[in-house]
Amino acid sequence: MRPTVLAPSLLAADLGRLAEQASAVVDAGATWLHVDVMDGHFVPNLTFGPAVVRAVREATRAYVDVHLMIASPERWVDAYADAGADGITVHAEATPHAHRALRAVRDRGLKAGLALNPLTPLSAIEAALDEIDLALVMSVDPGFGGQAYLARSDARLRTVRAWIDARGLDCRLQVDGGIDPVTGPRAAAAGADVLVAGTAVFGAPGGAAAGVARLLQALSTNTRPM
To answer: What is the pLDDT of residues 57-94, one digit of tens each?
Structure first.
């Protein structure tokens, strides 16, 4: 399995200092930045549009990981691709045309991801594995930061990891929700190789750079097979 990637979620950042905070976490060792896009319809919150993704792209050399928590995401692929996304993840629950959305992402030359909510059957990811670059297992119900990691997520991660490995696929396994220095190593041990963390980074004592360092240290010392 590839080295574990930490993807700080800008949902938890101080938006008045977005460029500064993005640069700080990248300088501290994060190689991805996670941008949560919410529409107030698919999830009960409103967040970033393409302009924010463009600002992040201009501020950093990191991989810009755009997570579309929006209805009909296939309508918005071009806008976020144009803004500078490196990868776009859509929710299976958000559209009856998930295959079309994934194909649109790949047609733009970007990495395509498929996300599932905690109670959505994993069969949706299993069916799509040959057509995605990233499988996202949500470890909280999407829509808000600061939620607690759901214990059932470990088993879901192990299942998806087994499918990826059995097929020999070059597909990342991402987890998002409640990741901190305790749950991060646990999720990594269950098979996740991209960990999204918001509050544990941007709300950390000592600042965001210290939060990244603390998480990376936990991942390097506490990850073990489960």
So the answer is: 999 989 999 999 999 999 999 999 999 999 999 999 99
CATH (domain of 75) = 3.20.20.70
Contacts of 62 (CB under 8 A, 6+ apart): 22, 26, 30, 31, 32, 33
Given the residues 36, 39, 180, 193, the one annotated as active site = 36
Largest Cα–Cα distance in the chain?
Answer: 45
Polymer length in residues for the chain: 226
From the CB of residue 25, how many other CB atoms can be counted at a distance below 10 Å?
Answer: 28
Q: Known catalytic residue: 176?
A: yes
- Catalytic one of 39, 65, 176, 180: 176
Let me know if 36 is a catalytic residue. Answer: yes
Please identify which residue in the block is written with the tokens 């399995």.
Answer: 1
Total domains present in the chain: 1
